[in-house]
Amino acid sequence: MKTRGFGPGAAFALLTVPAVVLYAAFFLVPVFIGFYYSLTDWDGFSLSYKMVGLKNYINILQDKRFLNAMSFTLLYTAIVVVFKLGIALILAMLLSQSLKLRGLFRSIYFFPAVLSMITVGMVFNQFFYSLFPPIGEALGIEWLSRNLLGNPDTAIYGVALTNIWQGFATPMVIFIAGLASVPKDLTEAALIDGATPVQRFFSVTLPFLIPMLTVNVVLAIKGGLTVFDYIVAMTGGGPSKSTESLGFLIYQHGMNEMKFGYGTAEAIYVFLLIGLVSFVQIKLLSRKEAGQQ
Amino acid sequence: MRSRRLAFNAFSYAFLSVGTLFILIPVYLTLAVAMKTREETTKSFFSLPNSLYLDNFASVINKAHFWSIFQNSVLITVVSLLLMLLVIPMVSYAISRNMDRLYYKFVYLLILSGIFVPFQAVMLPIFRHMSSLDLLNQGGLIIMYVTLSFAQGLFLSVGFLKNIPLELDQAAKIDGCGVWLTFTRIIYPLMMPIVATILILNSLWIWNDFQLPLIMLNRSPDMWTLPLFIYNFKSETSFDYSLAFAAFALSMAPITILYSFTQKFIIGGLTEGSIKS
Q1: What does the alpha-carbon distance between residue A73 and residue A222 come to, in Å, rounded to a whole number?
Q2: CB–CB of A239/A152 below 8 Å?
Q3: What pLDDT digit, counting tens, does each position of B179-227 carry?
Q4: B104/A contact by beta carbon, under 8 A
Q5: How far is residue B275's CA from residue B277's CA, in Å, rounded to a whole number?
Q6: Strand partners for A51
């Protein structure tokens, strides 16, 4: 019985058309374009360019600026992941008890996560510039009385602090969801058996929290490795290129410094880095599922 | 036991209250500075504004075509969401009911592999491609948002559809429904929970996104979205704190108002989405 002149096979195929066409035309094509230009010396504007083979890829590995961006990005990621998740876990545990104002606290703590990173970055940039130094002077704290973002050695901490302020909220609610999945009778049984709070945390709570921990670590690592908005809003990569992240460097090379081909090759390296992290994520998550069955 | 519990509760309240100060003070300062005159701000950054001084807001709104920028943001977000909430369930339904066929399996894995590709890896080629298609405009931006939402969207909805029994499709077929009718009348309504998750994840992403508008729309101020407006605000005004903070506060306002009404929904949807993807 055919309803509209074609069978179910054709109808199903039609349902896939919009997505397949868009995906091919606006995602796959750019991916191939990117790979193609990474093999050229195109500056982004000229009409002519040369194929240079793997020269960009080789040069990048000896490029001080790229290596600096790489080490900045890795250090930044490490700082942000540790503090973000640490704060998120502590707050999640406190907010999982039965407190009267729990709902209100949760709403307030989650609020930064709905703001845009660029706005938060600009706001904190102003704070670092005009708010913290007077406080530092009043309290006689040397490092706080200068603009944290104005010093190549400390700028990374200023950006990281901003990211932590805004970024702990999402992992926090994921941890809360994880804590809610700990069966009540298990915690009660542990309590009756006289387990100390520390024992209860490590033996009862933590095993249930591992999947959420995996998700949070992976999301936080990805977020750290692709940091861009805060850099644009707060430092512009400075002072003296000390806060150039990989994403920011690609943008600078491709859009502002006429090294389009070179920038796309850098982008391929970032793709490999993130691809590796995502691959590990999927491996970890699928193992978790297997374990549950 | 009980007194220890009470002590711990007191500690929790104290700790959490101090913590909320860290969240609320930056928000308070943003609002306070936005409502002060320049002189007041230089005198004291922290104090409450002397009066309800709204001129800063007014001058931001008048000076910078704020309304047209706000409308751009709303338009881009709403149209992108409508399109993705139609296209993603459509293709997900087709894939989930035909997993045994090569074409569907191939499409599924191909789109899913997009999860491995961070935006920055395709940022430059997207700029090049859209510029050669003459699509560096709102329309082009919407196309990109819809396209870039597929990987996560398919992952979430195909997974969800696996739990909707095939018997429903068969019953609908017996009753004379074709594929399209089965999808619109029976399957789509059942997909609402996952559609809500996709809606929340993507609306926050699109509304707050800075990178795509930066490469696609930055050249023409009449196309700007709110994040671009904020980014460009610094260079436009010879720097005046009060005005800048008024702009920051204005750009935060819409999402803050929305959040205050729908926080449970937003938190729930975001958690769901991040745990699954």
Answers
A1: 11
A2: yes
A3: 888 899 889 999 998 999 899 889 989 999 999 999 999 888 888 898 9
A4: yes
A5: 6
A6: A40
The number of helices, as runs of H, and strands, as runs of E, in chain A is 15, 0
Lookup: tokens for B127: 């700029």
Instruction: Convert the pLDDT of each residue in A19-52 to its tens digit.
Output: 999 999 999 999 999 999 999 888 878 888 888 8
> Contact B111/A19, CB-based, under 8 Å?
yes
The CATH number of domain B64-276, selected from 2.40.160.20, 1.10.3720.10, 3.40.630.30, 3.30.70.2690: 1.10.3720.10
Interface check for B70 against chain A (CB to CB < 8 A): the answer is no
Q: Does A26 touch chain B (CB under 8 A)?
A: yes
pLDDT single digits (tens) B26-51: 888 888 888 877 767 666 666 777 66
Rounded CA-CA distance B214/B217 in Å is: 6
How many CA atoms within 13 Å lie on the side-chain side of B111? 32
Distance CA B161, CA B182 (A): 13
Q: Which of A22, A97, A114 sits opposite B259 (nearest CB)?
A: A114
Size of interface A-B (CB pairs under 8 A): 249
Contact B167, B198 (CB under 8 A): no
Q: Three-class SS of residue B150?
A: helix
What is the biggest distance separating any 2 CA atoms in chain A, rounded to whole angstroms? 84
CATH 1.10.3720.10 fits A63-292, yes or no: yes
Q: What is the predicted ipTM? A: 0.86
- For A21, the 3-state DSSP assignment is helix
Locate the domains of chain A by residue range: 63-292
Q: Which residue in chain B has the smallest CA separation from A165? A: B23
A192 touching chain B per CB within 8 A: no
Q: Hey, is A40 helix, strand or coil? A: strand
Q: Is the model's pLDDT at A260 over the cut of 80?
A: yes
List the domain boundaries for chain B.
2-43, 64-276
Q: Please state the φ and ψ torsions of residue A51, each to the nearest 5 degrees.
A: -75, 130
Contact A80, A224 (CB under 8 A): yes
CA angle (A114, A118, A119) in 5-degree steps = 70
Residues of B in contact with A112 (CB under 8 A): 23
Q: Where are the alpha helices (DSSP H) in chain A?
A: 8-23, 29-37, 55-61, 64-94, 102-110, 117-130, 132-139, 155-167, 169-180, 184-192, 197-200, 206-225, 229-234, 246-251, 260-292
pLDDT at B139: 93
* Chain B nearest-CA residue for A289: B276
Neighbour-count burial for B151-160, b at 16+ CB within 10 Å, e otherwise: bbbbbbbbeb
Q: How far apart are CA A97 and CA A117, in angstroms?
A: 30
Q: Does A134 touch chain B (CB under 8 A)?
A: yes
Q: Which residue of A has its CA nearest to B184?
A: A15
